Each structure stands twice: as structure tokens, then as C-alpha cells.
Amino acid sequence: MHLSTVRGVGVVVREGTEARVLRNTGSVYELAQAAIKAGHGLAAEVARRDLGEGVDLTRATFDLPVSHPDPAHLHLTGTGLTHLGSAAARDAMHAKLDGGENLTDSMKMFRMGLEGGRPAPGEVGAQPEWFYKGNGHAAVAPGAALEAPGFAEDGGEEPEIAGIYLIGPDGTPHRIGWALGNEFSDHVTERVNYLWLAHSKLRVASYGPEILVGDLPADIRGTSRILRGGQVIWEKPFLSGEANMSHTIANLEHHHFKYGIFRQPGDLHVHFFGTATLSFADGIKTEPGDTFEIEAADFGQPLRNTLSFEPRMKGAVRVHPL
Fold this sequence. Notes:
alpha+beta
């Protein structure tokens, strides 16, 4: 089952090729709250409601598939160094790791994931890299522009799978489902010094258009591409799912939700699980007007966003004393 929010239509449920409006449902957030309150899953909650007219998702304009009524209570976060990448890249990485000396901090953390990121069920494994991107004010709907700030050095795509969660009344995290995500970042800034990773990640991001409800496929194969003037200038497959990761999803979820501040009732979380595919790594320099397109068959409609830049910032932000 897939859920989306179509502008001017409402919540849409897709089963196979058939997509229909879910009647008497104000939002996916409200739907998930009702499921938690009733003590059952989203599929059971949908079954309690009526399906209406059909919707052609190929022609739809999408809002975020789920959002919070108060954007300050939606948290955008992520984790990196979690994916193995292609077989060739993996072999090269292992060759460097086998030396055991003079490793960068990033390589050390990657090795920690290889060695301890897949604990037995119920046990705690190695901590991953973790970063904060912002709140709901930084969440950009599918089809809208990803705008880099006026001080940015770059605006680059990161094709990822995002987990979407709602915290229940007792502080229990409940997973709504999974979505394609563009964890938009500033790779030029990050390249200067890895300690600037935190700065490079404080950017907008997009996810959707559809939420996959249920289990995440172990082996996800998608495509990430950039179009300029309607023409593809870069295209590459990307892999995700636990078969292509050094960490289990459960381990990554634990290391996010172990913090009490992330278990506040009613809060929404969109957590990006990382990638091994970047156009930046292939020497691509993005430009305003470029379109990012991320697709994978398991997730339905592709995630598309254009790139824009705020006017270049001049001078420092002034703080006014009271």
C-alpha cells in the first residue's frame, strides 16, 4: 500500500496500479494518529474508511506526503556512511581499511559500521554518523524548488530512502512508512573540512511523493539523474535497502530514537538513511534550473525537484540587542 497527498484532492491510497481518494481523511498525519489510537496498523485504518474516485498520479501535483500542523514539530535528520556502494567501490574501500593505519575519521566510522552495524535483533550495534537538517520549515514538497542559501558553495542531490515516524502519546516511535528522499547538501563546503559536515547539511530537503507502507525491500535499485534544459546531463543507478548497507535499519532507528528529545508525543520525524551515489563525486557542477529526479520501482512516482539559489548574501547577519 502507498499513501500520498495530492494538492486539491487530499489523501490518496494506491494498491498496485489503482489510486483512489481516501474519504473523510484530512491528512496522513491524522490517519496515523487514528491508527495509533485504535491500536492497529495503517492498512487496518484505511480499511475502516471509504475509498472514493480514482486519481491519475502521473498527472498529479503533490504536497508533502505527510507533514505536521506545526512545522517546528517535524524533524529532518539523517545518517551517513551507511551504504556499501557498488562491488568495485566496496573492494576499494576494504583494501584501504585492511591497512589499518592513517585512516581518516570518516573511514574509521565506516569500518565501525562494517564491523558492528548489524547487531542481532534486540541488541545495540555501532553508532552511525548522524546529522540534523532542520525542521518542517526546511521540508520541500515534491515538484518544488530546493533552494540553496545565499552563502552556499554548492547545491547537490543525495538520493536516499527516508523513514517517516510519528511519536505516539506514550513516547513510542511508530513508523508510518518509507519514501524516496533528496537529502540536499552542500558538498563543496563539506569537502573543505569534515568538521563542516554539520554546516553542509543544514539545507532544505524533499521526500515523497508516495509513502510505502509496510516492510522496506532488502534490495532497492533506483536511478538518480539530473536534467538541464530538458536533457539528461548525468544519470546513475543507486542501491539501498539492508542488502546494500553496513547497518541494519533497526540499529539506525535505535541510535536516533534513543534520545528522549526525539520521543516527544505528536512529533513527526523524517530520517534519511544515506546513499553511495552522488553526481558531485563524478565532477558534476549543478546550476540553477537543473532538475533532480530520483526514482525506484518500489516507490511509485519519481521525486522531482528543481534547483535554485537565494541571492548571494552580503555582509554579516546583525543581531539587535533588546
